[in-house]
Amino acid sequence: MKYVLVTGGVVSGLGKGVTASSIGLLLQACGLRVTSIKIDPYLNTDAGTMSPFEHGEVFVLDDGGEVDLDLGNYERFLDLTLTRDNNITTGKIYQSVIDKERKGDYLGKTVQVVPHITDAIQEWIERVAMVPVDGKEGPADVCVIELGGTIGDIESMPFIEALGQFSYRVGPGNFCLVHVSLVPVLNVVGEQKTKPTQHSVRVLRGQGLTPNILACRSTKPLEENVKAKLAQFCHVPAENIVTLYDVPNIWHIPLLLRDQKAHEAILKELNLQSIAREPNLKEWTTRTEISSTLHDSVRIAMVGKYTGLSDAYLSVLKALLHASVACHRKLVVDWVAAGDLEDVTAKETPQVHKAAWDLLKGADGVLVPGGFGDRGVQGKILAAKYARENKVPFLGICLGMQIAVIEFARSVLGMIDANSTEFDPETTSPCVIFMPEGSKTHMGGTMRLGSRRTYFKITDCKSAKLYGDVAFVDERHRHRYEVNPDMISQFESAGLSFVGRDETGRRMEIIELPAHPYFVGVQFHPEFKSRPGKPSALFLGLITACRRSDTSLPNKGRLKKPVANGTSNGHFTVKSRENGHPFKSSNGSLNGVYSNGNGVHS
Prior knowledge:
Layout: E1 2-8, H1 16-29, E2 34-40, H2 52-55, E3 59-60, E4 66-67, H3 70-78, E5 87-89, H4 90-103, H5 113-129, E6 142-147, H6 157-170, E7 175-182, H7 195-206, E8 213-218, H8 224-234, E9 241-245, H9 253-259, H10 262-269, H11 282-291, E10 297-304, H12 314-326, E11 330-337, H13 343-348, H14 350-361, E12 365-368, H15 377-389, E13 394-397, H16 399-411, E14 419-420, E15 430-434, E16 448-456, H17 462-466, E17 472-479, E18 481-483, H18 488-493, E19 497-501, E20 508-512, E21 519-522, H19 537-546, E22 594-597
Parallel strand pairs: 1-6, 1-7, 2-5, 2-6, 7-8, 8-9, 10-11, 10-12, 11-22, 12-13, 13-21, 14-15
Antiparallel strand pairs: 3-4, 15-18, 16-17, 16-19, 19-20, 20-21
Helix pairs in contact: 1-3, 1-9, 4-5, 5-6, 12-19, 15-16
């Protein structure tokens, strides 16, 4: 097994996750099998209980693991199916060591950070690296490891010590360290400054790790004299110094690495030159070029509560991108803060209320993503009502489906106080109820999580056709509440169709309004399994329904000639911080979506 370690220095948010994903893709293009591990030094056992404002969205894996959003990047770039063990946290490591101590596995020894914690880290890495995640038998050729945080952080120290020992154990030719650092340009002098990277490398070397390759983030390509200076002071060959300069979207990063022959440097360090081929990124390159030629736009109103932080809905954005590119449309996302649609906002700040409604009414389609808590719920209900009554294409995900059911109960069935028991435990019309197997005392890992099977009870429906007329689909879940099965007959008699259910028939998974052009709600999260070359069927349906020139659904979920693999398009500008996605072009674009509205500017 060969290992590539990606670390970051100077500041956080340089894009280690995108860099690690791009390195993995480049090695795959060279004919190698790749697996990935993300190390998060925080004490949380997993990302499940953290607010999106802390680390962006919580990405859910097939096995129910609630993990860092970077694992979503790995799955999308590399088309892998990772497990919860591919995300290592300080909490997991300490918990495993303490459990062993309680069982007496250490035979009375004093349990210490070194060697017990560091040994546990190394054992975890070696064990997980051997597990195939690409659907093939046997272990991968290369494991790409991303160490979260910034070199010098106190919380990272045990991992750095463990990785220093690990690099010595596996030996030369089996370990390659790629250090992502910042080379800023001061506006006053306009000169690329190497001192931050020099200091970062010095700290890294002082902690027992020596970088083989430097990946330098900057606004423009590094000048030759700057490379020479870095090579001299960081003890890294000039040919092993690559620039990750600002580009229109992150899909350019693998091409940047290839053009600067980063793969040759990595293959040389890992002694893989004899078995690797020249990287074949023809399809990826073609798609990147195609993305810049898209002109016909599709506007999607994203109605949520975390509209000031796009990372909170990162997988939803990516799924929209995959579908829009497949439909040859330039995606424009209008961020609508759900609370701004509510009547209370109209009284307090009428101009904000009007602006939110203008965005909603100007969109071609409406998407209400998942979420927790009652803030903004009334606004989401109003958005669903607008889409239903005005025949605007609508997709509700998780909570988005639940609020669509609540809105239907209030507006069509006349249940004025219809609600979810999450928001009103005393409601007399509980349309959405707490799942019996859930826990109200322990929050972490107690939801209905991971891949679950949904059976189509009605085969002649939009969703079934989009999925290719299959009998069932497996999608990922993350929820505590569900539609009340005792009220289904009332909804269906009024025209709301529950076309997808679980194996018992009691758990509602997919709703549709047959008379509506596209009004679909799902309890699961289809965005988590969307891939650039395999867009989510339901997102394809939404984008296709929004196309003004052709509102017909794709034939059995397949377009005549979809783009073969992942390219984003357009430009995406945000006011808020971007965790792990900082490859911003000089014109302010990022990640390939044109966006405007609350929390985002164009």
